[in-house]
Amino acid sequence: MKINGIKIGESHTFIIAEIGNNHNGSLERAKQMVDLVQKTGADCVKFQMRHMEETYRNRTLKKSGDDLGTEYVLDLLERFQITNEEHKELYEYCKNKGILYLCTPWDLNSVDVLESFPVKAYKVSSADLTNLPLLDRLAQTKKPLILSSGMSTTDEVKKTINFLNNRDVEFAILHCNSTYPAPLHDINLKWINGLKKLHSNVGYSGHERGISVSLAAKAMGSSIVERHFTLDRNMEGPDHAASLEFDQFSDLVSGIREIEQSLGTGEKRIVSQGEMINRENLGKSLVSSSKLSKGTIIDASHIKVRSPGQGLSPQSYDELIGKILKRDMNSEDFFFDSDIKEESIEPKDYSFRRPWGVPVRYHDFQEYSSRIQPDFFEFHFSFSDMDLNPSDYISKTNNMDFVVHAPELFANSQLMDLATSDDDYRNNSIKDTQRIIDITKSLKDFFPKTQKPLIVTNIGGFSMDEPLNEDVKETYYNTFGNSLQELNTEGVEIIPQTMAPFPWHFGGQRYQNLFVKPDEIVKWCNKLGLRMCFDVSHSMLTCNHYGFDFYEFAEEVSSVTAYLHMGDASGVNGEGLQIGKGEIDFKKLSIILNQNCPNAAFIPEIWQGHKNRGEGFWIGLNKLEGFL
Were 461 and a residue from 73, 321, 419, 627 both cysteine, which residue would form a disulfide, CB within 3.0 to 4.6 Å? Predict the structure, then answer.
């Protein structure tokens, strides 16, 4: 079901701010409330329209002996109604403000008036769920209907559902308890599950105090959530006490949007990117208990379980017993999947039209360089690597190039941030960055072929709990530019990396603000005289989050690209996937890259590609051959 172009379902909850008659008869107050609702992020504001002579019998309007409660309601309605003309003015006001106007018609005349505006859909009150003549008139409009089901029995709900199904109407049914405010013990929220058995599109219209129950209704699968909105819960009128003021309504909208993101599909347990990182750091692996020789038949005495979780899972313990070791192992080396498989994947002589390389650490450089001869190696540094002597790991000069990937995390849990407004923090980042620059220069002694090595950097500009406002980003970019001026970069080239919107820091999600969007990347590269490392996996996540076209993104950013990190991606967090395991069409991407940055070197940037002696890298290179 769509209303005003919005597809209503569990992925997007249609949030209704029910102003109703809480304007207490004031058009100006109603407009003030529309302005506030628009700021909360709700999808629509809803009002009520009655023609009293059609809604109530004449004897009741004359107050000739009806219940006191009815007389009380009539008194309020007569004082707090607004005219048809004022409704039309509100409709136009909402249109200009960019928020949808909805209205509940309480009678047939009101339907005719609202059709003349024209409204996009109709909300039906609980009182009219059983009003089949009114429902028949609404069905004739062919517009979506949202019906509250308060005060009705299960049989009545079923009858109305059948009535509308027979008229081929798009509609949703909202669970509701029509008391104001509703006692928690009367709400029976689990009836949402009962409604789902009767109709596919269900929601919740709440009158309880607070927002907890409404948030729970979303978690239970409501595709629509409606709550009353007021300027002051102490105002005169029956609905104010059951309404939410601005702050609470804002919290409700934010909470619903957060729940939408968190629900997932429920089809299976998926290990998230952040969990994979933490699993590596906190999990356990099978490791060798001593130095072992190739050909050893593995028994229990050869195995122990230790952290980190970068090797073979302890669940494979029984499979490992009895296997013949296919390689030499030092004490506490990880066992890998390849140790229990019959075959392993080895590197080969790859053929590409542009320079290609492999990421390494100091400690595995000798092994990799003995097995493969790429055009260059990219050295990934941790902050502890910065204290190592490279000559302990690189014993001779090499006839190939090199690139450095600067650490993101430095000592004392300080993330590199060359854009922060905290001067002390920024100065520390400058000092650490200068250290990695100086180390890079020293590596030129081992790789004399490289005249001006690239240094891939994550330059900072992150935030903890929410993205930076757009109006402050320029200050952060300028601060980064100032930091570059304070660095001695002679003989090296700093290349920022295109970033994903949700980086993982310290085992949890943060927000990245700089070098994420394509227009900003190109603008600030040109302004600061920079080139980029285009991390295609990061940027696919960016495009998925913001709704950008990835290949248009690539067209823009490839114009300032000096270097490529090639990995696949899925969703907004599936980073560094194996080539072909995500959403990127590498054939289509390669056409753009070969045209716009044909000389940009690349590595396969595959999450944990170094496992199984680089198996992930070899697979990635195999898949990329023929494209780049």
Answer: 419
